[in-house]
Amino acid sequence: MKFRFLYWIGLLVAVLLADIFFPPPKVFLLSILGILFIIYGVVLNYIAGKTLKLLGHKVKTKEFSPPDKMVKAGIYSCMRHPGQFGNLMILSGVAMVSGKVWSVVFVGWVLAFGLWFILSVEEPEGVEKFGFDYCKYKIEVPPFNFSIKCLVEGYRFLKQIS
């Protein structure tokens, strides 16, 4: 758990450092797109986190803990890793808002590494933890889905169960 937290913080710091050390002029459209990516990522993280908090635990807890129940409802019905995908969208948005070409290029590598990490580290953990159910889920639902429809579906689901 601690490794995951350090991993995501490390990626954010890497993007911010690239932003500081490569200072070309800003591009207005890229900044707007970056803000949209940041908003999308934050909303995606919120919906995913709230859904996991409500459905991902056999026993409700107030503190943060990894899920012990597999969640396939709401936002998880259209993508397997919405929280992590939201984190990657936030990182991309930060790089775009900076308007610096090197930062945007660098975040491409960060995204590639982030996607690799999710698919090669977190996916096997899901299979180990939830077994055949997760294997079936992997066949039915893509790992990521860049869609407003997913956000709307996740939000509607949260309204229904809250």
Termini gap: 28 Å
Main sheet record: none
Q: How many β-strand runs? A: 0
Strand content: under 5%
Element string (H = helix, E = strand): HHHHHH
Class from helix and strand fractions: mainly alpha
Task: State the helicity in percent bands.
Answer: over 70%
- Count of all domains: 1
Taking all residues together, what is the mean pLDDT? 86
Shape: globular
The gyration radius over C-alpha positions equals 17 Å
Helix count, DSSP H or I runs of 4 or more residues:
6
Low-confidence stretches: none
What does this structure look like?
It is found in: Endomembrane system. It is a multi-pass membrane protein. The chain is mostly helical and about 160 residues long. The chain has one domain (about 25-160). It is about 75% helix and about 0% strand. The protein has helices spanning about 1-20, 30-55, 80-100, 100-130, 130-140, 150-160.
Features:
single chain, 162 residues, mainly alpha, 0% strand, transmembrane, transmembrane helix
Brief rundown of the structure:
This protein is 73% helix and 0% strand. The chain has 6 helices and no strands.
Reconstruct the topology from this structure.
Elements: H1 2-21, H2 28-55, H3 82-98, H4 101-130, H5 132-140, H6 148-161
Helix pairs in contact: 1-3, 1-4, 2-3, 2-6, 3-4, 4-5
